[in-house]
Amino acid sequence: MAKLYFHYSTMNAGKSTVLLQAAHNYRERGMDTYLLTAQLDTREGQGRIASRIGIGSDADTFAPGEDLFEKIAQRLQVSPVACVFIDEAQFLEEAQVWQLARAVDDLGVPVMAYGLRVDFRGQLFPGSATLLALADEMREVRTICHCGKKATMVVRKDASGRALRDGAQVQIGGNETYVSLCRRHWREAVGDGQTRAD
């Protein structure tokens, strides 16, 4: 039975690595997959999913306003697909997550979405919020803060390395821009005066 999965974490947890490994496992067993990533993320080139550890794969892209149910249905007309993989799922629109759920329900294809849960301000991305509401299964991809605790938050840094509190929700970047932290160290970084010492 097909399901909608949401694999979530902070930056630098290895979400793309997990996605690429899962897709490889399908292909290794002779099953085709369909990979999609956000059109606006061009860090590795247009239509490319890449991991910090050096592995990558070409992918189709999704854009705002695009009907993902139709996109997946058209792909299935070309040849069977065992699973659809979505990278950078936080950039999905609410309607697009519903379209993915419809693809699972009506087309019978599993969809595995990988993305950030919250932005640098500690707020849910719209795509992630909808995935949290609709996913049949959710799995956390864990990473750690510099203190060794589980990182659940991320800060965005300016050019001088200071944590930003305001700005657009979406700004493409990697290690030069974002740092994953536990909630306590995130609060310290953004200047939350209510932080208590252990």
TrEMBL record:
Binding site for substrate: 170-173, 178
Main subcellular location of this protein, as a coarse class: cytoplasm
Compartment(s): Cytoplasm
Identification of the protein by name: Thymidine kinase
InterPro entries cross-referenced by the UniProt entry: P-loop_NTPase, Thymidine_kinase, Thymidine_kinase_CS
HAMAP family recorded: Thymidine_kinase (MF_00124)
Similarity-based family: Belongs to the thymidine kinase family.
Residues that coordinate or bind ATP: 9-16, 87-90
Catalytic activity: thymidine + ATP = dTMP + ADP + H(+)
Taxonomic source organism: Lutimaribacter saemankumensis
Keyword presence, Disulfide bond: no
Keywords: ATP-binding, Cytoplasm, DNA synthesis, Kinase, Metal-binding, Nucleotide-binding, Transferase, Zinc
Catalytic activity, EC: 2.7.1.21
GO (cellular component) term, any one: cytosol
Binding site for Zn(2+): 145, 147, 182, 185
Keyword Ribosomal protein on entry: no
PANTHER family: THYMIDINE KINASE (PTHR11441), THYMIDINE KINASE, CYTOSOLIC (PTHR11441:SF0)
Catalytic center residues: 88
Assembly behavior: Homotetramer.
Single GO BP term: thymidine metabolic process
GO molecular function annotations of the record: ATP binding; thymidine kinase activity; zinc ion binding
Enzyme superclass (EC): transferase
